Queue: 3 jobs
Job 1
Amino acid sequence: MCRSIKTLRRPGKAATGEEVQAAALQFVRKIGGYRVPSSVNQRAFSTAVDEVARASHKLLTSLKARKRSSA
């Protein structure tokens, strides 16, 4: 996968909106094969970035931390 997409789920630090949007942009660029889409594809590209960012934000806010067992 795209090496420039960094892990946004980190212990003790929530991802910022900018980080989520940047990761979504990189993901859509990789999937779509465009660094910068043509004007005819710009709307579809932008819509995809927004949808991926929303889904990513929803995922990150829904994940639960694993409970550590005490020994």
Note: The mean pLDDT is 87.
Job 2
Amino acid sequence: MAEQIFEPLPKTEVIKAVERRNPTRIPLVMARWWGEGLTEQYGDRLRQLDRYPEDAVMVTADSVPFGQMGLSWYDPQQAAKALDARAVLPDWKHLDEFIDKMPDPDRPGLFDDLKRQADQHRKTDRYVLFTLWNLFFEKPWVIRGMENLMLDYYEHPEEVHRLHDALCRNYVGLIRRAKRELQPDGFWTSDDLGNQRQLMMKPDHFREFLKPYYCRVGDACRETGLHFWLHSCGDNSTALDDLIDAGLDVFHPVQKHTMDERQTAKRFGGRLAFLAGFDVQHILQEGTPDDVRAEVRFLIDTFDRPDGGMALAAGNGIVAGTPFENIEAFLDEAVRYGAQHRRQFNP
């Protein structure tokens, strides 16, 4: 393992960045996000990059383990082969059974392993994120299938609300239990709400079918003192006001070529912190190390405010075919320029 040259920030500094209270350095969160094929390509060489910090760590739970629910119609082995081509709930007639068999968020032993992880992280004064992947769009599209779900907003609105309510009760229960047993600092989730040009659904449908449940999750985060972090790919511009209203604290990634970084920072920067995601599709794969460093500086100059409100991440998983020297340039510039940029506000 490479020597740790750059020390991770204490959690108080990450909190300052999220809450816009003048941190000393821009945090890196999910910057070393190794995606498909990268570990196979570079192997142990990636360990050289351990010298760059991850300023937040994650403990991750599975909110709805479909294969363990004992659903009468569902074959987990067959579903695993079909992946997204097979819906977990192909017919709404099974909704009552699905809801009845959803796992109890307070079931014994659920957090035993996570507690050991969280306890270890707290000993090193790390900012800890409790993580549940998928929320009120990604999870339902797995449950119903994408095409079905898009029609459900029109043809089965009552069932959609019943499903979302059941999921929400599960998520909120897990958040509250996590606070009691794991004592994290934030809650991280994902919901790819956007495509390359707009939201995946009409903004009115977001407000009708998703926002009320986002608000309940936001209330749970506020009541437990957790920051609310969301990853959502694509163009989320028309949803950010509603997400802020629901209690969102940190948004990731502001995907390049789908959202205008300067306009987004200008419009929302006083109300929302950004985990700005570096472009892993084009600049990191196709650019030079100098191009990569210039883009890091652009992101920091755009999103970092005098009071903070920014962290840096990979926009998504860094995949095979990405030049190693570009990954190193991204991490190196993020730490060095991130500290330099903050010094002008902390002379």
Note: The beta strands are 56-61, 127-132, 186-190, 227-231, 250-252, 273-278, 310-314.
Job 3
Amino acid sequence: SLQLFNRNKILTGLLQACYKRPVTTAQINKIVDDIETELKNTLKTEFKTSEIGVLVMERLKELDDVSYVRFA
């Protein structure tokens, strides 16, 4: 389904996935900032939830495997 970009929804999902993991709030915010910038550059306003999920998982996989699996 298509949705508007929701920064808080992504942030909440990341915070849950990274709970009690060696990931800082700054790292989580950077992921959300990077995704927001990337999506704004597409000039679209609505995105498939799967598109956003892939972007989050790509960045999370580089950061912490356990958080990546939790998010997936």
Note: The mean pLDDT is 94.
